Amino acid sequence: MIDATTFEEHRRMLFGIAYRMLGSVADAEDLVQDTWLRCSQVSTPVDNPAGYLARTVTNLALNRLTSAAATRERYIGPWLPEPLVTQPDAGEGVELAESVSLALLVVLESLSPLERAVFVLKEVFGFSFKEIAGMLERGEAAVRQVGRRARSHVQARRPRYDAPDQVRRRVTDEFLAACLGGDLNRMMELLAPDVTAWSDGGGKVKAALRPQHGADKVARFLAAVVSQPMDDPQVHPVDVNGRPGLLLTVAGRPDTVACAEIADARITEIRIIRNPDKLRHLAQTQA
């Protein structure tokens, strides 16, 4: 059996697995609760609580991914993960230990559910292939092969340059100031020539239905966005999945979360999340 104290000791790990598997804060929290309900009913001794809990939440996530596939296919516009937003340097007490960037979560989304599970358990949480094989009820050799394939896929597609946080924050703040000031030339200077911007409105709010490519197109798109009339807009510097980003509130409620990838002090990728369903948990934390 697993008591409440043991479960709480592993809650952050469980949330981390579920969130990386699903890209949804709300679904991850649901799966953590479902894991507790299942494990609290186990009456026999559990020799390895961490492994048992990880196995339970991973299999629940795999089941959830199967049902989510059809929903993703019908999604309007680019799909981006729900953001984990905290105050800069929030430190302890948040589920961002070993945080995963939005860019990496998008890459994980391109893996098969099995590849995603093996990658998360092995590369993020350090379980051995033997342990993972037991969790997934598959042969160790097959799981090892899946793991190698997933790791190769991720390495080929993840951002190649990782700017220090202070550079990320400086460039992000400078770009925001240029946007708000309507300084198109400065925006262009801070954007890499091949920059891409994704905006996720889910068909519920205004957002580009296709990625925007190139510095000129991205700059003009963002300049048009910030020029829209808004009720008491406030921009807050925050960490988005452990990286410097921005939260825009309108009339006191979360409206937009944005985060950029930066290389050589220029923005190479921008991800903008506006779907209100994906920001609902932020409104709850601010209430």
TrEMBL record:
Keyword Transcription attached: yes
Highest taxon of the lineage: Bacteria
Pfam hit, one: Sigma70_r2
RNA polymerase sigma factor 70 region 4 type domain ranges (all copies): 102-153
Boundaries of every RNA polymerase sigma-70 region domain copy: 7-69
Cited SUPFAM superfamilies: NTF2-like, Sigma2 domain of RNA polymerase sigma factors, Sigma3 and sigma4 domains of RNA polymerase sigma factors
UniProt entry keywords in alphabetical sequence: Sigma factor, Transcription, Transcription regulation
InterPro entries listed in its UniProt record: ECF_Sigma-70_Domain, NTF2-like_dom_sf, RNA_pol_sigma-70_dom, RNA_pol_sigma-70_ECF, RNA_pol_sigma70_r2, RNA_pol_sigma70_r4_t2, RNA_pol_sigma_r2, RNA_pol_sigma_r3/r4-like
Complex and partners: Interacts transiently with the RNA polymerase catalytic core formed by RpoA, RpoB, RpoC and RpoZ (2 alpha, 1 beta, 1 beta' and 1 omega subunit) to form the RNA polymerase holoenzyme that can initiate transcription.
Family affiliation: Belongs to the sigma-70 factor family. ECF subfamily.
Name used for this protein in its record: RNA polymerase sigma24 factor
The organism of origin for this protein: Streptomyces hygroscopicus
